[in-house]
Every structure is written in C-alpha cells, then in structure tokens.
Amino acid sequence: MTALFRISAAMGGVLRTTTDPMIAQIRLAWWRERLEELETQPAPAEPRLAAAQRLLLPRGISGADLVALETGWARMLDPFPWSVETSEGIWFRGVKAFGLAARLLGSPDERLQQAGGLWALVDAARHCSDPETRGLLIERARTIAKGLEGTRFPARLRPLSMLAALAMRDLARGEPFEPEGTPGRALAMLRHRLSGRL
Hints:
With 198 residues, this protein is mainly alpha-helical. It has helices at 2-17, 21-37, 47-56, 63-75, 84-104, 110-126, 131-148, 158-173, 183-195.
C-alpha cells in the first residue's frame, strides 16, 4: 500500500515543486514512461519505482494501472478556471487510486472507488487558489457525496474510506476549510473507523 501511494505522491510532488507547467509536464512524462517500462525492464535507480516493481507487479498492479494516476495529476496543470473535464480527471485519479488499493486488500469495492473520487475532488478544492474552480470541484463532490451517504464500509477498507469521511465533513462545514490535523477531524476519522459509515 505504501508503494502504491508513494508513486501517486511522487507525481503530486512534481506539481508542488515545479512552477513552470511545461517543465512539470516533462517531469510527469518521465514518470509515465518509467511506469510503462516496469513490466519489460528493470526499474531505474529510483526507490519508489523499484518498490512498485518489486511489490505491486507481483500482486497484479500493472505499470499501465499506475500510469492512470499520472493522467489525473497532469490534468491539474490545466489553466484556471478548470473545466468539467479537468474535474473528471481529478475524480478519476481518486477512483483509480482507491480501486487499486482495494485490490491490494483483496476487496474490490465500487463504493470505495467513488469514495476515492470524492476525496480527490475535495482535496483538490482544499488546495485550489481559484475561487471559480474551487466552486466547481465542491459542486461535483457534493453530487458524489449524496450517492455515498449512509454507506457502511467493511473494517479492512476503513483506513481508506475515512479519507472520504473527512471529505464529507469538509463539504458539510463549507468554506473556509477547516485546517488539517484539528481535534475535530481526528474525531471524525475515529468515529468512521468504528462505525464505517459515511
């Protein structure tokens, strides 16, 4: 699981540390190409790629599966205000990441995939500086949240679904978003860990 999310975090790190969108695209393309090669040649001397090859490929997670995460991150380089298509790319990244995680846990779950999409949209909104785009992301997230209300996740999936519980808390409270790491957010995670309900 750590190997999976470190790959996604590496791509997110490209966006956080690169101010020039063209350079960011080049850096993301490097990740995409290396992931595409994982099944045909040894991983380069990059610990996250080596871990993905060693730990994910034997468990049925292909390089192509991981490339789908890059597609969603790349959409975040679109100029503001973002379009519906950009929001769909962000949603898909969350769907794909949580779907792969569920496969690693041996519990494929379509509801968890939707929870991942919800989390990705709200997480993007939390870090978005453009008010119009933020509104679009929140509106899309609220639509998904309605379909997930009352869903109860099995215990083994709750370390992931608790992120969706935080996203729903953010949507309910509205802007300005509550800072991360507050006691209220910790309590919401604990409550979901025990009940499994969104």
